[in-house]
Amino acid sequence: MNEAKINQVALPAADVLKHQPLVLNYSQGLGRCLGLYLGQSILFLITCTSVLSVFLIFFFIIKEALPFLREFSPAEFFTNTGWYPQAEKPQFGALALIVGSIYVTVTAMIFAVPAGIFAAVFLSDVVSFKVQSVVKPVIELLAAIPSVAYGFFAVMVLAPWMQHRLGFTTGVNALNAAIILSVMSLPTIISVSQDAISAVGRELRESSYALGATRMETIFKVIIPAAHSGIIAAIILGMMRAVGETMVVWMASGNASRIPHPWWDLSLSIRTMTATIAGDMGETAKGSEHYRALFAIGLLLLVITLCLNLLSEYFLSRTAKKTGALK
Amino acid sequence: MKITTRSHFDKIFTAVTWLTVLVIITLLIMILGPILSKGTSAVIFRDTVEFRKMQITLFRRGNEMKLSAEKKQTAAVRQKIYDTIDDFKKGIDTQSLTEQVRTIYRRCGQELRRKDLTPQQYTDIRSTLKDIRDRLEIAFASKDKAEIAECVTYVMKFSGDENFKGTSAEDFFVIAADFQKAAKKTDLTKQHLYAESVGQIEDLLTLLLGPRPGAALPATAMNQFGATRWDLAQSILDKILWKEQWVSQGDGLPLVKTRTQRAEEFAGTEIEPLFGYIKDNLKTMMKPKLRFYWQYLIDDSTPGHYFGGIGPEIIGTLLLTLLSMLFVIPLGIISAAYLTEFASDNFIIKIIRVCINSLAGVPSIIFGLFGLAFFVLFLLPAFGAASKPCIFTASLTLSILALPVMIRASEEAIKTVPSTYKEASLALGAGKFRTFISVTLPAAMPGILTGVILSLSRVAGETAPILFTGAIALGPVPSSIFQSTRTLSYGSYDMAVGDRLAMMVPHNQYGMVATLIILVLCLNAIAIVLRTRLFKKLHGH
Fold this sequence. Notes:
Chain A is mostly helical. Chain A has helices at 2-18, 26-47, 49-71, 74-79, 95-126, 129-144, 147-165, 174-199, 202-210, 215-226, 228-244, 247-252, 273-281, 289-326, and strands at 83-84, 91-92. Chain A is built from 14 helices and 2 strands, in the order ααααββαααααααααα.
């Protein structure tokens, strides 16, 4: 009797065991569920490190810059060209530095954008896959070289060459920095715009060829207009690289804080925001006005690059939508 | 437009794209070429006997027996140069000759007092000595050969005098004879120029051969040895043979560099053949040998990197990168895993992605500022440590910089794992976590490794973030992670811009940058190989 009872009870239990993956009892399901949630939330928290980092970067840069922003009028910061932090009556006018940054960046882009787009077209539309697979890693090498090595080249090779061959009064000048910056931003521009150009489908190309257009016409009238937002994103990303670059401009731009006069004279020395931070920070006392002013420049730089970044993301998402729609 | 013009345009366009890419590749070669080729000369070069001396003195390395034999051989050849110059100087360096004569006169006076002489004899000899001294001084100051001859003959009259036998006064006659001999040969009006030029030659010889045997050893290591490299020796030889001058062409015109042969300047003197002698015997004096100085990569250096290698810099760079990898690898892989495998596509995830992209776009100098403000000035004091830049803070700063690189690469790697793998695992009853850990992660491992190596190479090359958070240009090898360190990247900067001494050793300047570039490029090459292998494996080609 007892045995039969046990059998009767045991039988359904064995049945349950068979189907265990499918039918869980309440506590088992809860445990697993909780485990999964707990695990996922831990993973989520760890993933949030990047968010935390961005937040902390903003917080600490603003925290250090705030006393300066309170004391000095932003109007003076943006309009005064005198950067004399060590003077008896210190002046913190960042205009010359901002202009310097824009100056080298724009000059670098004048060199880099056409070259980058031509190279991207070359990789996607002109050569065979085989040549492309050789050339692409070579161009990627340019991105791998550390910035200090570029700076070294600018100071040790390019600057003496400019001074002796081109007859400039100094080899470390805006042109030198701009040339190196354009080389440095080329890989970014090439790879992003190549992606955008390749993402324009075969259909568009083939219809254009079918209508009798040559390759040049197809590229200029069909493909580049179709890929324009990706190319704009590429240019913005390249600009970000150039604006944020420190070592090259510090070493190659000459570090003279002034607005070039005449404005087109590239052989003059200039000074950028990044170079000012790198150059001055080592010599300032922590917590001094000068120190805070450097953080204010850093904040400005951070805001500029963040805006550029959001802009590039907007353009990239537009390409993604467009190519998605085409498919 | 005609169809032919259109096709011409098309061809021109194709040519332009080719040209652009060729220009870019040429630029790459132009940048890497000189750096790498000159950098290699820090390791492979022709050394000289001075290099071997330096190696034994500073690093206790090399064969001392062999070296002392070599020293003997070279010393004999070198001595002849020193002797010639000393001889020549006897006729030129009137200032020191005058001094010498005065010293001898004083000494003679002392000797005279000790002698047993009558007052009359004493005054006689004394006045003769004074006469000799004055005559010699006149001779030294004179530019007229006849006058010199007259003075010297007058002095030499006394050379046979019994009173001067065995006294210091004999030195007068030696000097007088030497001077007359030298004065006969030299153009006396040029004495002044000669003295200056000989001084320059002596300085150059010290650079070439090191301090003179017997002279006091200079305090700094860089002055204790001559030219340690054959190329350096040759460039110094060139400076010895040719005199470079900036000559003005007239008012308002730029100065022009001219080169004149020093041998011409010294034409007719006994120094003239010396230049040929140095040129012919440079090899016997320096004994160049091809050397593979691999210890460059482990040696410490003397201040300013004048001698020695870049060992501490390499160790510092490795320490920084490996320590930052310790933070980045787990964070990066977990973030990537969460974003690809577990997260649903909602608003918060979008924010996270925007943040990661923003982090990737932050300029490297901002990371430096942040590292200074947060890690150095806030975090360290918060934990009771001294608030100073160190390896720890530098590597934390670098790890934040490398985080987006790592996350993106790992995401790509995890995404490339075919979904069939995961589906098979899920179908076998494994949960999400188990599937990820035992199926997806191993399959994505090569890709993740690529990401690790890419972020390693990024971190190794960065300079701006560690400027204020832990890098120094000079200093001891760190003994703990709470000390600052030298690194390849900061060292490269410092040697290119900050250090005047480094300008004299271009091979070491280039050597450090070349090492950094080779390190980074090798890491990248490994990453590329891994990536292609993974691609082939997963796509079954």
